[in-house]
Structures are given as C-alpha cells and as structure tokens.
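Researcher: I need the complex structure. Ligand is magnesium ion. Inputs:
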Amino acid sequence: MRLSKFFLPVLKEDPAEAQIVSHKFMLRAGMIDQTSAGIYIWLPLGLRVLEKIDRIVCEEQDRAGSSKLMMPTLQDADIWRQSGRYDSYGDLMLKIKDRHDRDMLYGPTNEEQITKMVADHVKSYRDLPFMVYQIQHKFRDEIRPRFGVMRGREFYMKDGYSADIDHENAKQAYYKMFASYMRTFARLGVKAIPMRADSGDMGGDLSHEFVMLADTGESEVFLHKDWMDVDPLIEDIDYDKNLEPLFDKWTSIYAATDEIHDPKNCPVPEAEIIQSRGIEIGHVFNFGTKYSEPMGATVTGPDGKEVSVHMGSYGIGVSRLVAAIIEASHDDAGIIWPEQVAPFHVVLVNLNMADENCAKTAADMYQKLQAAGVEVLYDDRDERAGVKLGTADLIGVPWQVVIGPRGLEKGFVELKHRATNKREEISPDVALNKFTAAQKQAA
Ligand code: ATP
Ligand code: MG
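Model: Output:
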C-alpha cells in the first residue's frame, strides 16, 4: 500500500478526550474515528489490526470444534420476554420499534437467539453436542462509554455457545473453550489470566473472566503472586481428550475477580496475594438450563424422556483487544505491534522523494516486497523526513526500512526494529531477502 493513497488521518496533537494511552494512540494513528459517544468508524489501519485478531480468534474457535455462523444484529423482543430478560437487562439494551410497532432490539448478546434456534431445530440427544460462534457487533448503551473502543457502545465481540445433553458434557465444552482461549490469547501475544468469576445464580465454578493486567483496567482483581512468573505459552491441545486435567492445571494458581474474592475465606495467605487492576478481554460461562428451560429448548434423551439442553456462552472482546494490546505494548513515540497482529509487516520510509536514487530504490523494494506477498506500507508522501519517521514510530509497524540519500551513496538502507529500536545498515538486497525469505517460510 502506498501511503499517499491510503486513508490515514494522523493527528499531530494529543487529542484532549483521550484519558488512556491506547485511546490516544488509536486516534493519533488514524485507526478509529468517533461518530457518536462510544461509536466508531474503524479506519483502514485500525481495521487491518481488528481483522488480524478476528482471524486468530476464528482459527482457534474452529480448531476447538466450534462452527462459525452469523446471527442478525436486530432481535425480536419476544425471545427476551420468554427468557425473562427483556425488562431485567435494563437500560443497556437499545430498544427499537419497527414500522408495524413491533418491539425489536439491537442485540447486546445472543443467548436468547441461540436458545431459540436450539428450541426450533434440536429435537433429539443425537443432535447434540455442538458449539457455534460468530464475530459481530453488539450494542450496549453503556452509561459511561469511555477509553475509546475499550468501553464502546457499539463494539465487536466474538460470542460462542455450546449445547449439550447434560452437565457432565457441558463441562467438557467449557474446558474446550477455556483451552481455546488460552491458545488464542497466547497467539495474540497477550498475557490473559483466567480468573474465577461470578456465576450468578448458577453456582459452581464454571465462570471465568480472562483478564489482562493493566493499571488502566476497569476491573479490580486478586491473584497469587506466582502468576507474575507465568508466561503465555501455547500448548498443543488434543480437543478429543478430556481437558479437565489441563483446566485444573491452569486454574491451580489463585486468581479471582473482586465479585468472587473474599479476603476472609481466601485459600492464599494474605502476603502472597496481589491486588491489581485488569482489562476483561474474555469470559466463559456455563449457564446450564437457565434459558433452555423457560424457552422450551428440550431434547428427547436416550431413555425417551424430554430434558432441557445444557448450554454455555463464551465471549471475547475483539475490538477491546485492539486497545488492550496497545496498553500492553507501546512507548512514548507510539504503538509497538506484536508481529501477529500488526497492520503491516514493514514500512518503507523514503526520506527524500525528490532524490532520484531514493525514489528508484524505494519503488523497486516496494514492488518486490508486494510481489513476494509481504505486507508493506510505502511512505511515499511528500513530507519532511521527521514527519515520516514520526508516523512510522506512531503506527507501530514492526520493521522500518529507512531509505535516505546519504546511506544509499554507501549502498545502504537502514533497517530498524520498532520493538527493540535496534538499527542496522544493510544493502537493499539483503533487506529484501530478509523479508521475502521470512514470507516464504511462513507460507
Ligand atoms: P464489562 O464487565 O467490561 O462491562 P461484561 O462482563 O459485561 O464486560 P461480557 O458480557 O462478558 O461483558 O462480554 C464478553 C466480552 O465483551 C467482555 O469480556 C469484554 O471483553 C467485551 N466487552 C463487553 N462490554 C464491552 C464494551 N462496552 N466495549 C467493548 N468491549 C466490551
Ligand atoms: Mg463478562
């Protein structure tokens, strides 16, 4: 992509409304544009990151055996009346009337929609189990939308659902999703700690929030200090096996949200507990027959008896993750994208568009990188060198190739690694090779 033809409205000044660093950099780097309180356009640069995350989430959902579907954003109020949540959900729900005066709503979540689907189509225990998911917009009329996409009103969420014949089987679905979340967040380069969370009136311990520690987080959490030394490792997981032992291992170190944590009855000595702030990036929840019972989602069991389907729901805040990753990975100059979610792999910074040698070298490298399938952004704007270098740091692309007249006279371009700030002078060919070889290996 040529930057001269890319829509990237970079801001020179820090926007006054941004209270946290991710919001500031997302606005400054031209990733998002607010249209109403808590509602944003995902601009091209931001969307590229969102889609990278989207893809990793989907791959890991598929791997765990969940199938993707897509539900409507507008839902019929009747299904929420059946579940009993139409009134209890409160002002978070955006209610809408259609031209026939029928009550509709913009879905804040989809348990009712899924349970209705199960009630309509799943008749026998033989139709179970299954897991489905989608990645789609939700609307919650948050009382205080803030921090940019961290707490939006319209936001982008992965929501998944499982349906099983009984609690024992539902637990297995829960462990699968739990494992898939461990893998998903590790692949995203995020340290997400599974914390015991409030399971409402469900009881049991099958509700966990996945929380990334951050000073700017809105949740208060309590964890054993050993969590500080745990690295986000990706384990190979055999989803056909019983994953309870893995689940037990991952949850063996104490971590809990403030709703669950009880200092008086905590199994961990006070001296070993850390109180921290965190960002909730995912949530897994077994809700049993809470919706299937009132909504009549029953199946005939092997013994011929009708039983309510046992269900669970599993959310990931995909748009919130974009901001969370920035909170965890930035410096004063801008964002530092982990490779796997970066909007581009490399940015070519041509310091002097008027210099023939620079223009020729940059255009040649750009063409070859594109041909090799490397995600490259070519800064060919008619701007001062300082502005271009500033943009490159701000948008956080992992690799910068800086092409200037003085270096080229010696036959060199400068290769800069954004995360470590390491620079080396190498020939354009060596630089090219480095990226095209890595691309070939990845393909
Ligand atoms: P919170 O406690 O932050 O309000 P929640 O517990 O109500 O979130 P869930 O219903 O568990 O949210 O939704 C699943 C995921 O969606 C959350 O873990 C979070 O990452 C994300 N999410 C929830 N609300 C928002 C929002 N207003 N803006 C962006 N992401 C959100
Ligand atoms: Mg939650």
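Model: Summary of the prediction. The longest strand covers residues 273-288.
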